[in-house]
Amino acid sequence: MSRYEIAFSGQLAPGATLEQVEANLTRLFQADAQRIALLFSGRRIVIKQDLDYANVEKYREAMARAGAIAEVRALPVEVEEIELAPPPAVESTTPAATQTSTAAPSPLKVVPRDEYMAAFVDVEAPDFGIAPVGADLQDARAPAQAPAVDLSQFSLAPVGSDMGERRRASDAPVPDTSHLKLQD
Predict the structure, then answer these.
(1) Cα angle 126-98-85, degrees, rounded to a multiple of 5
(2) Whole-number Å distance between alpha carbons of 45 and 6
(3) What distance in Å separates the CA atoms of residue 75 and residue 83, rounded to the nearest whole number?
(4) What is the pLDDT of residue 100?
(5) What is the rounded (10 degree) CA torsion for 89, 95, 98, 100?
(6) With 80 as the cut, is the pLDDT of residue 166 above it?
(7) Phi, psi of 19 (to 5 degrees)
(8) Considering the chain, what is the average pLDDT of its residues?
(9) pLDDT, tens digit, for every residue of 49-93?
């Protein structure tokens, strides 16, 4: 995905005056006069960087409405080059060889790609390799056993019975308030 930066070097749109553009950019960027004067110093000033194309176009259009001509540049994409290790040598598939390779993998030999990774050359780590496509990577487990729960003390209520809370003896009947009235 390409990333962009938007910059301004003091160029005005045709028909725009310097005072008008300065006032518009002051409102657009909500900046003080000193910062806006820095934009018109003649140097290329980066307004915003690391934007996607849609956002950089929003900035460019807003500055064009203000009377300023903005410059949009694509940022260079950094590609890290790595050195791949050669594929492991194919071993014979005798039963003794397969048992020893699964029990203790051989140590991994790492070639450092830069100074930072050179610090990890002496780290001893097993070389596990990569499983073939479609291989099951999880160890086999015994099927789970259902827990032994004694449910003999429970019974079922008859069909249509009320399953709500039992009424307590302290529940009093609701008083009759139909004879009460509010006066104006």
Answers:
(1) 40
(2) 9
(3) 25
(4) 45
(5) -110
(6) no
(7) -65, -40
(8) 80
(9) 888 889 999 989 999 998 988 888 888 877 777 777 777 776 655
pLDDT given for residue 1 in this prediction:
65
Question: Residue type for 157, please?
Answer: A
| β-bridge mates for residue 179, sequence order | none
* Contact in structure between 112 and 121 (CB atoms under 8 Å): yes
12, 5 contact by CB (below 8 A):
no
DSSP 112: -
Cα–Cα distance, 70 to 7 (Å, whole number): 6
**Residue found by looking up tokens 């909500």 in the block:** 30
Rounded alpha-carbon distances, angstroms, from residue 117 to 112, 113, 127: 5, 6, 17
How is residue 151 written in tokens? Answer: 């449910």
The mean pLDDT of 173-179, rounded to a whole number, is 86
What one-character DSSP code corresponds to residue 29? H
Cβ–Cβ < 8 Å for 41, 92 = no
Judge whether residue 110 has pLDDT over 60. yes
Residue 52 CA, distance from chain mean position: 17
pLDDT value, residue 61: 92
Can you read off the two tokens belonging to residue 175? 């008083």
Average of pLDDT values for 175-181?
89
Which residues, including other chains, have CB under 8 Å from residue 6's CB and lie 6 or more apart?
A: 46, 47, 48, 49, 51, 56, 59, 60, 63, 70, 71, 72
The rounded distance, in Å, linking the Cα atoms of 177 and 48 is 72
